[in-house]
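We store chain and fold; thus.
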Amino acid sequence: MSIKTYFLSQGLSTQSRMSHAGRSLLFSGEILTPEQIIAAYDAVTREDVIALAQDLFRWDQASLSAVGQVRTPQEYQTLVLGG
């Protein structure tokens, strides 16, 4: 099930809609419509996800455990961070 399908199917009940509205108001100060949320999901690019991952995951502070055909740390870094 796609995230859009899940979101739209969860929005059918009054309780789900009100819970979403409350969380949205508390966290962002506004209540987004389902259309706005879907548009925001659709606007996310691969580059956005990579940029966020590079901000969140610090390779210089990472620990890695591998079993089997082990690669060099640089190869794993390329897999994780791209480039």
DSSP finds five helices and no strands in the chain.
